[in-house]
Fold this protein.
Amino acid sequence: MKWRISKHQPGRRRFMRLMASTFIYAGMLVSASGLLGRRAMAVARQLTVAPGYDWTRHRWGFGVDATRCIGCLRCVEACKIENGVAQDASHFRTWVERYVYLKGKRKPLVDSQHDPGNIAASGSEKTYRFDNRYRDANIDKAFFVPKLCNQCEHPPCVQVCPVGATFRTPDGVVLIDHDYCIGCQYCVQACPYGVRLFNQAFGVTDKCTWCYHRVTRGLNPACVEVCPVEARIFGDQNDPESPISKFLRENRTRVLKPEMGTSPNVFYVGLDKEVM
């Protein structure tokens, strides 16, 4: 079963918002989140994890080789199709940023697929490509950087959720139980990487889950599966022969915003200091 946003009963939604407000007002936020987080984990295990999957035996990790990424955006298309993400320029579970350094400039120019110029070049919000705005420019350096949820070991989004809808699984993936999300967007504000989005149609938050419904069945995330240059690497860090373990051994990797103390599990190669 794919981890998709489901519809909710409006009456229950209003009740849950009231409950969350009560928890906060009464100073019970931490204890309530812990209790409901355990309940959410049980729900997610029932709905999302493949039969027979033991999530205590794995520790998933994700690698990104920015020296290989060509900005084709097949990963973005595959993610939207696989996870039922809205086909517009405002909702993305993963995206790709273009960094361009012009001669004589110290700061890069940065754009991504939801930039108006790139939308115009593609001709539709449902297709994705980068425009040719720099074809006559004097470029010193340029590269692409895929972005996605970092599945942090110490996720701020989990800490601030008042109803335990956001939680971290034993194998290291942060999920959202949309049956309990009240749409307060505290997690959106808490995420230092800007990887969470708010779905107006359903009144809940959403984000990359590394295609958890695929991973628990022995498959790669959709974005990894379609990458033509193997710029995205995925695997079990507990397995020394997995693609991610080899990637970590053979490369000097970095994580985004290490100073935040979140311990991300997305590891990058080829990043410029301006990206960090």
